[in-house]
Amino acid sequence: MKKVLFVLIFIISFFSFGQLSPNKQKLIKPLLTIDYAESENIGVGGEYSEIYKSFENIKGKLTNQDLLILALNSSNSLRFYSCVELIHRNDKDVINLYVYYSDYPLKMKYLNGCLASNENISDLIYQEYQNIFDIKKTLELELSKLDKKEIDENSVYKEWQITLDGINKKLTSEFLQNFEQIRKLKKEFDERI
User: Fold this and answer.
1) Which residue would you say has higher pLDDT here, 176 or 148?
2) DSSP state at residue 4
């Protein structure tokens, strides 16, 4: 089954890669040579990542098929950011990407805040899902400690509520099913090791 999946993904991506339009190829060009990824804010001072910003500026112009192509056949930066965007779009192909990068690990440097690590893309996919739930839990806990007036009047708390509302909208049944499938697969892969 896994060999069939790998062959299918390879064939789709091989024949599709040339199908990125010249405009889209031009959009991704600055990220094609970057072999690592960064979180939104990096360094001790929490500066906004230019690499992250570059992808944020182009992701809306890419279809899910474009992202799948890039997740399989591109620089490490584009592979990672494309996987993350597919997660946020509730695309089922994230499950196939998780399986692929679990069976054929690709380690890459990832700068998360001021911490750098070498991570397998499958681990980063799992972490992205888990982070969403961790942020939700933290925000719910912190907001539950506040009086409603404090949330309405204080901009920081208001931003927390807006973030939590956005996460709750993201947690559709498709999103939850994808994460549950990846969680099961992770358990299976961990047991094999």
Assistant:
1) 176
2) H
